[in-house]
UniProtKB/TrEMBL annotation:
Belongs to the binding-protein-dependent transport system permease family. Keywords: Cell membrane, Membrane, Transmembrane, Transmembrane helix, Transport. It is found in: Cell membrane. This is Sugar ABC transporter permease. It comes from Microbispora siamensis.
Length: 269
């Protein structure tokens, strides 16, 4: 009983430390500057105000939200399409150097993303894609090592007898993928889609470097831009953070089982 009590106490402390920053975002978003300076950060405003949210939503912020939605949708669609084809090739097709090429590609996950930012920017500048949608999307549109690894492991867990039966019936690789493997891979595809949506929505460093105009500005860069030349308007920044946070919290609440599935890959029961 004592061990269980200590365990739950430790879990409660960990949960509080994880949730407390988000609680501060919500509380600060509904405070005025006067209330922020006169009340402790962990206490709610009395009375709360929606002026910060109204100021953001009444300006260009909805346009930045639309840009983020467009970027997230394009990257998710590209990830699902190109990752699926690449993973199928690595899992089922036989060609020289398949295993070496796959593990070499997966090894790139060990390289920090910040290391490749400057080379990517130089490439985009040579192609004339700086501050364009193509420059924003191309580095992530054609799939990622993690996505290919996830789908490849799932495909390898499916029974090979299904493909053998399809080949006997005259089906080719493309038909096997589209008609047999993809319908069985809905859990893995859902997992990949959720992870891609979250990572795309929260992406900050690459959009900050490759874009400079309002036409391609996304919500993370817009929130960082709320910092004024004299000081930081924490009320507006927290209101922007709250707007960006709500969709991600909703996705996690409704699709958390798919996120857990990204760690524990399952095949057919």
């Amino acid at each position: 009983m004592t061990k269980r009590t200590l365990l739950y106490a430790a879990l409660a402390v960990g949960a509080f430390l994880s949730v407390f920053p988000y609680l501060l975002v919500v509380l600060t978003a509904f405070k005025t500057r006067t209330q922020l300076n006169s009340t402790p950060p962990w206490l709610p405003a009395m009375p709360p105000t929606t002026a910060n949210l109204a100021e953001l939503l009444g300006g260009d912020f909805p346009h930045y939200i639309a840009n983020t939605l467009l970027m997230t949708a394009a990257l998710t669609a590209g990830q699902l399409v190109f990752t699926t084809f690449a993973a199928y090739a690595f899992a089922r097709l036989r060609f020289r150097g398949r295993e070496g090429l796959f593990w070499l590609y997966v090894a790139t996950m060990m390289v920090p993303g910040a290391v490749t930012v400057i080379p990517l920017f130089l490439i985009m500048r040579q192609l004339g894609l700086v501050n364009t949608w193509w420059g924003l999307l191309l580095p992530y549109l054609l799939g990622t090592p993690y996505g290919i690894f996830l789908m490849r492991q799932f495909f390898r867990g499916l029974p090979a007898s299904l493909e053998e039966a399809a080949r006997i019936d005259g089906a080719g690789p493309l038909k096997i993928l589209l008609r047999i493997l993809l319908p069985l891979s809905r859990p893995a595809l859902g997992t990949l889609a959720i992870i891609t949506v979250i990572s795309s929505w929260n992406n900050f460093l690459w959009p900050l470097i490759i874009t400079s105009g309002d036409d391609t500005k996304v919500i993370t860069v817009a929130i960082a831009g709320l910092k004024g030349g004299i000081g930081v308007d924490y009320n507006l920044m927290m209101a922007g953070g709250l707007i960006a946070l709500v969709p991600m919290v909703a996705i996690f609440v409704f699709f958390q089982r798919y996120i857990i599935r990204s760690v524990v890959l399952t095949g057919l029961k």
